[in-house]
Amino acid sequence: MSKMTFEEYQQMVVTEKFCTVDCPVQMLFNIFSNKWVLRVLFELTQTDSLRFGQLKSAIGGVTNTMLSSTLKTLEEVGFVDRTQFNEIPPHVEYSLSEKGKALYPIFLEIINWAVDYGI
């Protein structure tokens, strides 16, 4: 699907042609409905890469299982890269992929909106 204007989006929603099985909006809602997804993505914007334990400490309150599941989902949709280092001791680092880095301007706009409206 190509980019569209907000007016084109509104028209498609009104005519019910837009949100079908492969609706990009619904797909994003499904990804971002996970409580920890945005927080993980935000933490990864702060540095080049983080290990699992560093992410868990930075976020706080997330269980190992939930963080692992969230990272797996983000890797599957292409927002996060997972790099395994086969050295002693072995470890894994997570970083934003190019697709994930494309979220930077969106995060910046959300931050600016929050500042503008005193959120």
Model description:
- The protein is mostly helical and 119 residues long.
- 55% of the residues lie in helices and 12% in strands.
- It is built from seven helices and three strands.
- It has a three-stranded antiparallel sheet with strand order 1-3-2.
- The model has no long low-confidence stretch (mean pLDDT 87).
Describe the structure concisely for a colleague.
This protein is mainly α and 119 residues long. Helix content is 55%, strand content 12%.
The percent range for helix content is 40-55%
Number of helices: 7
List the strand order in the largest sheet.
1-3-2
Structural class: mainly alpha
The overall strand count is: 3
Report the span from N to C terminus: 33 Å
* Major sheet summary line: 3 strands, antiparallel
Q: What string gives the helices and strands in order?
A: HHHEHHEEHH
Shape: globular
Which segments are poorly predicted (pLDDT under 50) over 5 or more consecutive residues? none
- Mean pLDDT, as a whole number? 87
What is the strand content?
5-15%
Oligomeric status: single chain
Our Rg estimate from Cα atoms comes to 17 Å
